[in-house]
Amino acid sequence: MTHSRFIILMHPMEFKKEKVGTGRFCHLILQNSKIIVDVGFDENVEFKRYLTDPEYDSFILYPGEGAFDLTKGESFPLLPKRKAQFFVIDGTWPCAKKMMKLTTSLHALPRVSFSNGRLSEFQVKHQPMPGCLSTAESLHQLIMDLNHFGIEDSKSQEENLMRVFKATVNKQVEISANPNNQGYRRRPSTPPEARKISKKWCHRLLFFKSAPE
């Protein structure tokens, strides 16, 4: 069990459609975690209860300007004798941006992210650029970095996240490649190395940068 707590903020579409989504099995694997489903969380009673818990220093795992770089940082900005709590947004990138924008309570939280250029191993879902990871991969990277800073000592148990993730991805690829499973996908998924980046990502603002007026 981790010392840190992970609050997975899940978009309703992710909750309804993705029955084997990475956010769900992250919650099952990480004992000190919670899933809260909403779009804007400012009025969500459960969210506010966790946000104001005096035992924890809260952070938001989300890239952007001013984020603490876990890859390059020398010491994690955690107050002495306090535990860390990380809010993690679980949804498509456009949905995540909207959730972040609408939940003004998250704007003042310190952001943490990483700049190691890790490539997602998600073969079915498309990631727009290097460093854009699934919820499972992001939490796996986060826990490894927290180990590096001495905040966690998970003894490599975070690898359970990747074992389940890879097994899920392999099963999805197997199903999509089976012509008898046309209800899943009409055509097999394209391997990541053969995909072309959509032109819209060249000018699309992927991350929420500033509070709305």
Fold and architecture overview:
The chain is an alpha/beta fold and 213 residues long. It has one domain (5-202). The chain contains six helices and six strands, in the order βααβαβββαβαα. It has helices spanning 12-17, 22-29, 45-51, 93-102, 135-148, 159-177, and strands at residues 5-10, 33-37, 56-61, 68-69, 83-90, 111-113. A six-stranded parallel β-sheet has the order 2-1-5-3-6-4, with helices on both faces. Helix 5 runs antiparallel to helix 6. The N and C termini lie far apart (41 Å).
Order of helices and strands: EHHEHEEEHEHH
Approximate strand percentage = 5-15%
Overall, the morphology is globular
Q: Return Rg in Å.
A: 17 Å
Q: State the distance separating the first and last CA atoms.
A: 41 Å
Overall strand count? 6
Backbone structural class: alpha/beta
Tally of distinct domains: 1
Task: Describe the sheet with the most strands.
Answer: 6 strands, parallel
Low-pLDDT ranges = 201-205
Number of helices: 6
- How much helix is in the residues? 25-40%
The average pLDDT value, as a whole number, equals 83
**How are the strands of the largest sheet arranged?**
2-1-5-3-6-4
